[in-house]
Specification:
By secondary structure, this protein is an all-alpha fold. Helix content is about 75%, strand content about 0%.
């Protein structure tokens, strides 16, 4: 992509990208920052960007920047919500941690790994597939079966207690 094609792409798509990001973030300054960063990344990589696909490239980069921004803001908000005056009371709730560990122990090694990667670590299905060597469909199926098994065990336990 030449400098001229870059400028044309910016002129043609700036409003649309900004509107898309603003609808998701609902904060003008943050949306401007995300869009600015997307244009900056496209500028730095303009040599590799196909001018015919600049709109797609721009939206993809802006979307990923937006996701990164949302994650960053979420972490900051969680830290601000932390209150030192709150104390955890150590009341035995039928030893919930132990019950969950027992439930996880009943799963196969693969199922346990998938549940921990998805629900505890927060990885996407695609990332889990790359980590475990399974395809995305297998990850979804195994994870669904594991969650059903966990649910059945925990519900049965709830009825006993």
């Amino acid at each position: 992509m030449t400098d001229r094609e870059y400028n044309e792409c910016v002129s043609a798509n700036a409003d649309n990208v900004y509107r898309f990001i603003l609808k998701n973030l609902r904060h003008e300054e943050d949306a401007r920052d995300v869009v600015q960063t997307a244009f900056e990344k496209m500028w730095r990589n303009r040599e590799e960007v196909d001018a015919a696909k600049c709109k797609s490239y721009l939206f993809t980069v802006a979307y990923h920047q937006m996701i990164d921004h949302i994650r960053k803001v979420k972490r900051i908000q969680l830290k601000e919500e932390f209150n030192d005056t709150l104390k955890v009371q150590n009341k035995p709730v039928h030893n919930l941690k132990q019950v969950l560990e027992e439930a996880l122990d009943r799963l196969s090694e693969t199922q346990r790994s998938l549940v921990l990667l998805k629900d505890y670590e927060g990885y996407s299905y695609e990332e889990i597939g790359k980590i475990t060597g399974l395809n995305e469909s297998q990850v979804k199926v195994y994870l669904h079966r594991a969650r059903v098994q966990l649910k059945n065990y925990l519900v049965r336990l709830e009825n006993v207690i």
